[in-house]
Design brief:
four-stranded antiparallel β-sheet; Ribosomal protein L2, domain 3; seven-stranded antiparallel β-sheet; 1 helix; mainly beta
């Protein structure tokens, strides 16, 4: 996906860049596969802000993506269109199945309109097809991976990401290398899609101006040291003063920047190599 840079005719376009959308073949989505989502703007059911810097944004429709494919097992599908999805960084593909049904799926890099895909326990290994991890050879790049068998794809769904099948040594588990550097066990019965997630150059896009961030629904982030003491632990002082403490904190006093907040989970036992270990 090439990136289009604009001529710096105004301050707002000086650093701005856009994707060319060369892969996109259809601009209007399927109406019956879309719905309107209520945007809470980072607030809970009491109206209190629980996630900061959320709000506003351009009006958009949510495309209902099928991450599971289980009810289409053994039914051949044909890619009818590649579309843009405002709710995710990757492109999506509209698939027409032989039984007359239509579904949206995450589009892998390089998939073309007219390509036939299949979801089966042991499907033909080509871009876009989906099968059990135990039937995918070592070294293959995969995405949209199940964490628990039957739950549908939950990992590796953002633009340009992929995991790699490392080994099938264990009788029950397969070792999968994730983009973070972590290697973990995945049940061999879990399904995964073959290929890399589309829109690989997304990370190279420069937002360019503050207004574009507001269109994306992201509000400005103010430094704690620019606030008053009542608003943030870093606040107060004269001029450009330091935070006044050995380590930075969140607005609520918790340690920040490197402090581990993950609690012990049942899935920790499935981690073969941590991303924090060199």
């Amino acid at each position: 996906m090439p990136i289009r840079k604009l001529k710096p005719t105004t301050p707002g376009t000086r650093q701005l860049s856009y994707p060319t959308f060369e892969e996109v073949t259809k601009t209007k989505p399927e109406k019956r596969l879309c719905k309107r989502l209520k945007t809470p703007s980072g607030r809970n059911n009491q109206g209190k802000i629980t996630t900061r810097h959320h709000g506003g944004g351009h009006k958009k429709l949510y495309r209902m993506i099928d991450f599971n494919h289980m009810d289409k097992k053994g039914i051949e599908g044909r890619v009818a269109a590649i579309e843009y999805d405002p709710y995710r960084t990757a492109y999506i593909m509209l698939v027409n199945y032989r039984d007359g049904d239509k579904r949206y799926h995450i589009a892998p890099e390089g998939v073309k309109v007219g390509v036939k895909i299949m979801m089966a326990d042991k499907a033909k290994l080509k871009t876009g097809s989906r099968c059990m991890i135990k039937n995918i050879p070592v070294g293959f790049q995969i995405h949209n991976i199940e964490i628990m068998h039957g739950n549908g794809g939950q990992m590796i769904r953002s633009a340009g990401s992929y995991a790699t099948v490392v080994s099938h040594d264990d009788a029950k588990f397969t070792q999968v290398g994730l983009p973070s550097g972590e290697v973990r066990y995945v049940d061999k019965r879990c399904f995964a899609s073959v290929g890399i997630v589309s829109n690989v150059d997304y990370s190279k896009i420069s937002v360019g101006k503050a207004g574009r961030k507001r269109h994306m629904g992201i509000k400005p982030t103010v430094r704690g040291k620019a606030m008053n003491p009542v608003d943030h632990p870093h606040g107060g002082g004269e001029g450009c003063s330091p935070i006044g403490m050995p380590h930075p904190k969140t607005p609520w006093g918790m340690p920040a920047l490197g402090f581990k907040t993950r609690k012990r989970k049942y899935s920790d036992r499935l981690i073969v190599k941590s991303r924090h270990r060199k």
